[in-house]
Amino acid sequence: RPEYQKDDYYTYEEIQDYLKGLAESYANRVKLTNVGKSYENRNLTTITISNGDGRKDKNVIFIDAGFHAREWLTHTTALNVIDNLVVNFEENKRFLQDYDWIILPLVNPDGYTYSRSGKKFTNETIYCPLAYTEDHEIKCWRKNREPNKYRCIGTDLNRNFGHGWGKGDASSDPCDSTFKGLSKFSASESQAVRRVILDLANSGRGVLYLSLHSAVGKILYPWGSEEIKAKNYKEHEEVVQAGIDAMANGNFQFPSTYKQGPSYSLYLAGGDSSDYAYEVGFPLSLTWELPELRGNLNFRFHPPTYLIGELVDETWIDNVPLGQPTWHHI
Ligand code: 0X9
Ligand code: ZN
């Protein structure tokens, strides 16, 4: 049986192997779909997880991770969700009673692979500045790896979506870390995520979109491209606060101190994926910014491997009662 190891970061190949192993061992509850290819031709693979009861009309929770190459904790967290729903099925099957879950654990495999390729820093925590404009450190790479026409490499996939494209903190300079791309959805990776989002929105099954990022320690809801709160912001705040409270009350040495708010409260930036998912019909749409701190240690995007276990466990609290969330399409 494939078992998810929480003591190191998986490579792209290890993630693919892990997913394939699950599909073989749990064929009645797991389905893999290649939803696109990265610029360098790596597979973008979703895993669809059900309880195997054959119902095809359930609401869907769609989670993605790894938009930004350096945010290593995000795909690790996504793998932990997968592991809990598939391998720890007995403990968690109530979460699959009314929902199917679709998870895309690595949106930007080229950028991630590149960010691991530095010789010097691979096993070491280094502090990357948030607004990184020059790629002095391979490990701090953020964008995809698609060359731009004249100079510099990479598009910021979380500035490449169609809603509010180019607004706020989104750059037109291909050398910047927040380069929005030559046009909306110019990157094959953002096209792939859009296809999944549209599929689920159009069928009316998509109820929660959750995009995992790091390392702000804040859970964000629309909008990010203008200073307006989502129409059903109260529903967002309720759902998010329940999660934040559960994590704060978890039995951890350093209880987390998440905040929440609309995306623009972090900074105004158009073209992100959660604004897009909300616009096209997901009634709940979140950007979950994992933390950069544990106790006194600030690790920003690269938690030391000994902390992986507690950081991912914190995000999966299964001893709270299942509430009855409500939502309204906008
Ligand atoms: O800038 C981003 O894409 C996200 N932060 S990160 O540090 N992970 O890069 C935040 C996106 C939130 N959305 C907006 N502010 N529009
Ligand atoms: Zn990010």
From TrEMBL:
One of its GO terms (cellular component) is extracellular space. The keyword Membrane does not apply. It comes from Drosophila erecta (Fruit fly). Residues 8-326 form the Peptidase M14 domain. The keyword Zinc applies. The gene is Dere\GG16151. Keywords: Carboxypeptidase, Hydrolase, Metal-binding, Metalloprotease, Protease, Signal, Zinc. Belongs to the peptidase M14 family. The active site is at residue 289. The chain holds residues 23 to 352 of 422 of the full protein. GO terms for molecular function: metallocarboxypeptidase activity; zinc ion binding. GO terms for biological process: proteolysis. This is Peptidase M14 domain-containing protein. Its cofactor is Zn(2+).
